[in-house]
Design goal:
Layout (H helix, E strand, L loop, with lengths): L1 H25 L5 H14 L19 H7 L7 H27 L6 H14 L1 H9 L3 H12 L10 H9 L5 H8 L3 H21 L1 H8 L20 H8 L5 H26 L3 H15 L9 H11 L4 H15 L2 H5 L6 H8 L1 H12 L16 H21 L12 E2 L17 H7 L5 E7 L4 E7 L5 E5 L7 E2 L3 E4 L2 E8 L6 E5 L5 E5 L1 H4 L4
Antiparallel strand pairs: 1-7, 2-3, 3-7, 4-5, 4-8, 6-7, 8-9
């Protein structure tokens, strides 16, 4: 029976992988990050600067120079062949990650083949692995190196080297050096630092100009990576940006939170390692890298998926429920799926930031503690009490967020358009030209229409001469966003902006004396009805 279940799970994995690869190849923007690697390396081979490359979609090369050395051979293949090979390697990496994690799940018990197959299947279904496939990302390979090293899978004399190499490709695994020190693995920490510095030195010798450019400034230019306030960035930094902290307060609050989260996670990881659970310890440190990094896109978030599976495989009702909740958040975008039925701004914020909040909770609670306390199934009534604890905790959490307003600035997709964008019919769609805009206006101080897209709503309209200023509030209590009034055509002023949701939005028009002359909120919310 067990062999049959193993075969069924591997068949599911193979089917999911095949369908996923097929869907990726059908997308017009498939393997866009791999295309950036390929184009940047081709430019470098041609003598052009690595960090001056910009792909057609606006994406630059963002990794340290050593990553360019690792990726150097990719240009030896036609890009179509490279894409197919990369997808196969990504699928293979998923299996490689599943092997030690499945072993940790089945530690001290039979059923390791079943645990490995289940781990691989859940990983393949998760949003982070799907994102790695879609974009052709290196993240899965970085996780693989850090996981093997953190769990001590590699021979003792080489432990630490893989973390150093992984950090030379993407900096976040450097947190594992702190873990090695906390766990008393001093030689592993030394080898990790040595490998990292050796890789950086090699890159400096081979690519001196690129190394100077990167380490002298590019490394801290996070704006090159994209809109860090977007919902895809599920790090503490991204969540704080969506909360709308002031530019002065943000670095301080972020540093304090990250320091506390990492310190607690490292102490818990040390205890897990000392207790004979190196797999749990390594995954916990990996989750801390997701929380602590300024940028944690979906393809970076493989660690929380592994943590969810380890929680599901643990004893105790509360741990299993916590694991299932984390896995659901990592497979499904709760903000997108449940946003339309969310009745409170605070709940919407909870759903949109479920992955970041889940990772933070895991780092603070580890695989035990108050948040995921183990039940004692052998005691009469213990399971019932565990379910009661789960119900109370979930109810309290939802009640807390239900009464919260949407945080100021918690509108990651907001953008107001300028005169340079007027020619784009996607942004300015309700009137084009002087006569059309003049005829379109006149129904009031502000006349506008909306266009609903899967992840945002666009508003385009015109204002009457009495309107001196136009502002948009994403939710009650939020800071206003100024909407430019554009003299695109003689005799009229037009405007256009986009927002993640307008369920709680408000558009306010002000006169020359600074007083509001018109407010539009129900009209915006009607876009979702």
């Amino acid at each position: 029976m067990r062999d049959r279940r193993v075969m069924l799970l591997w068949a599911t994995f193979a089917l999911t992988a095949t369908v996923s690869v097929g869907l990726v190849l059908r997308r017009p923007d498939h393997l866009s990050d791999l295309h950036i690697y390929y184009g940047a390396l081709a430019d470098l081979r041609a003598g052009r600067p690595l960090y001056g490359y910009v792909a057609e979609n606006g994406g630059p090369f963002t990794y340290p120079p050593f990553a360019a050395l690792v990726l150097w051979p990719v240009t030896a293949l036609p890009e179509s062949v490279l894409g197919a090979l990369w997808l196969l390697l990504t699928v293979a990496a998923v299996v490689a990650v599943a092997v030690p994690v499945g072993g940790a799940l089945a530690a001290g018990r039979s059923g390791r083949p079943l645990a490995v197959a289940a781990t691989a299947t859940v990983l393949m279904l998760s949003a982070p692995v799907q994102s790695n496939l879609r974009f052709g990302q290196v993240s899965i390979f970085v996780v693989l190196l850090a996981l093997f090293d953190g769990m001590g899978v590699v021979p003792a004399r080489w432990r630490g080297v893989l973390v150093g190499v992984a950090a030379a490709v993407k900096l976040t695994p450097l947190l594992f050096v702190a873990y090695f020190l906390a766990a008393g693995r001093y030689r592993d920490a030394g080898r990790a630092v040595g490998a990292f510095l050796g890789c950086a030195a090699l890159a400096a010798v081979v690519l001196p100009a690129e190394s100077r450019t990167y380490w002298a400034g590019t490394v801290v230019q996070t704006s090159r990576i994209g809109d860090l306030a977007s919902l895809g960035n599920q790090s503490v930094h991204g969540m704080l940006l969506r909360v709308g902290l002031s530019p002065a307060a943000l670095p301080v609050v972020w540093a304090l939170l990250v320091a506390a989260i990492c310190l607690v996670a490292l102490l818990r990881a040390r205890r897990l390692a000392a207790g004979g659970r190196p797999g749990h310890a390594a995954v916990l440190v990996g989750c801390a890298t997701v929380a602590a990094s300024p940028v944690s896109w979906t393809h970076h978030q493989i660690w929380p998926v592994l943590a969810g599976m380890l929680l599901v495989g643990a004893t105790g009702v509360t741990r299993k429920v916590a694991g299932v909740a984390l896995l659901v958040a990592m497979v499904v975008s709760l903000g997108a799926v449940l946003g339309p039925v969310s009745t409170r701004p605070g709940v919407q914020f909870l759903l949109e930031n479920a992955r970041a909040l889940g990772v933070c909770a895991l780092c603070l609670a580890g695989f035990g503690g108050v948040a995921v306390a183990a039940a004692r199934p052998h005691r009469t009534g213990a399971a019932g009490r565990a379910w009661l604890r789960v119900g109370v905790a979930v109810g309290a959490t939802l009640a807390f967020f239900a009464v919260q307003p949407l945080p100021a600035g918690a509108d990651p997709t907001f953008k107001a358009y300028s005169l340079a964008d007027v020619a784009n019919p996607r942004y300015f769609f309700f009137c084009r030209g002087a006569a059309e805009c003049a005829a379109y206006g006149g129904a009031g101080p502000v006349t506008f229409g909306t266009a609903v897209e899967p992840t945002k709503v666009r508003v385009n309209g015109v204002v009457s001469p009495e309107v001196a200023r136009l502002e948009y509030y994403s939710a009650p209590g939020g800071a206003p966003r100024a909407i430019p009034l554009l003299p695109a055509y003689p005799g009229s002023r037009t405007f256009s902006f986009r927002s993640a949701t307008m369920t709680h939005g408000r558009l306010v028009a002000y006169g020359a004396d600074g007083r509001p002359i018109a407010t539009y909120d129900d009209e915006l919310a009607a876009a979702f009805r």
